[in-house]
Amino acid sequence: MKCPFCASPESKVVDSRPDKGGAAIRRRRECEKCGRRFTTHERIEEILPQICKKDGRREAFDRMKVISGIRKACEKRPIALEEIERMVDRLETNLQESSEKEVSTTTIGEWIMKELHGLDQVAYVRFASVYRSFRDIGEFMQELQELLKK
């Protein structure tokens, strides 16, 4: 593993432990050149469906892209990064269990909105405003009114 500080390819593992309920291994490493320590995470490479974008393009599922979008919606809200990661873990599990070869961004977006609705209503509205691309304040207000009914 290449050191993030000095780029040396030589490092040794000083500690390993299971992470995320056994789905990953967290390793503490020490660079043999500069002596600094860093953490890596090892995960099973999972086979996930292709994601169909609204414009027809297809791309591989990108966990970090999903986390980034959810984090933006949850910014300055009392939601821990661990909760967001658990949410994305559940999404990945659902995608794997579906055994679909392709999944639309619409399906993923709706699933995320459902999760956020139960977690934090402000984060839900933020995500919905970007995901649904509200064209005006009327559409935004309609979404808020639906939220208040529930």
Describe the structure.
By secondary structure, the chain is of the alpha+beta class. It has two domains: 11-43; 50-149. The protein has helices at residues 63-73, 81-98, 105-119, 121-131, 137-149; strands at 11-19, 24-31, 37-43, 50-52, 58-60, 102-104. A three-stranded antiparallel sheet has the order 1-2-3, with no helix packed on it. Strands 5-4-6 form a three-stranded mixed sheet. Strand 1 and strand 2 form a beta hairpin. Helix 1 packs across helix 2 (81-98), helix 3 (105-119) runs antiparallel to helix 4 and helix 4 packs antiparallel against helix 5. The chain is elongated, with a radius of gyration of 19 Å. The model has no long low-confidence stretch (mean pLDDT 89).
| Radius of gyration based on Cα positions | 19 Å
In DSSP terms (H or I, runs of 4 or more residues), the helix count works out at 5
Largest sheet: 3 strands, antiparallel
Order of helices and strands: EEEEEHHEHHH
Per DSSP E runs of 2 or more residues, the count of β-strands stands at 6
Low-confidence stretches: none
Tally of discrete structural domains: 2
* Widest sheet: strand ordering: 1-2-3
Helix content: 40-55%
State the secondary-structure class. alpha+beta
- As a percent range, the share of strand residues is 15-25%
Average pLDDT:
89
Shape: elongated
Oligomer: single chain
Q: In angstroms, what separates the terminal alpha carbons? A: 50 Å
